[in-house]
Design a protein that fits this description.
Length: about 130
């Protein structure tokens, strides 16, 4: 099996763990894998993961409470990668409430677009008053 194909099961597993909607997970895998495959498959994924650095987020954490922007935090409570208390902290720092999606995992925007759109609409309406 070519190296490019050997890494498909790992990629599929990661994306499936991040979705609570199996149909959307399958669609997402189909859309995203081809880009990884085109750019080095596993090497591309590893490069992306290695680029993640919490220092980038921590560097601005103390500035979040001073932001004067409309905000809403929507979080999947079943996210296995980013725990709910991270969302609660972000919401608190931004001075807003945390909207929980009980079945939501990491890819909440893909699995629950209506709930996210409603939150965006709410913030947009409030900001335009």
């Amino acid at each position: 099996m070519p190296a490019r194909q050997r890494h498909i099961p790992l990629f599929v597993s990661l994306l499936r763990r991040g979705h609570d909607n199996t149909a959307r997970a399958s669609e997402s895998i189909g859309v995203h894998w081809r880009h990884y495959a085109t750019h080095g498959a596993a090497r591309s994924l590893v490069r992306q993961v290695n680029a993640l650095n919490s220092r980038d987020t921590l560097a601005v954490t103390d500035q979040l409470p001073q932001l004067d922007v409309p905000a809403r935090v929507v979080w999947g409570t079943a996210d296995r990668f980013q725990k709910e208390h991270y969302g609660a902290r972000l919401a608190s720092d931004l001075g807003t409430d945390l909207r929980r999606i009980d079945t939501g995992r990491h890819f909440t925007p893909e699995d629950h677009p209506d709930q996210l759109a409603a939150a965006v609409d709410e913030i947009t309406a409030r900001a335009s008053r």
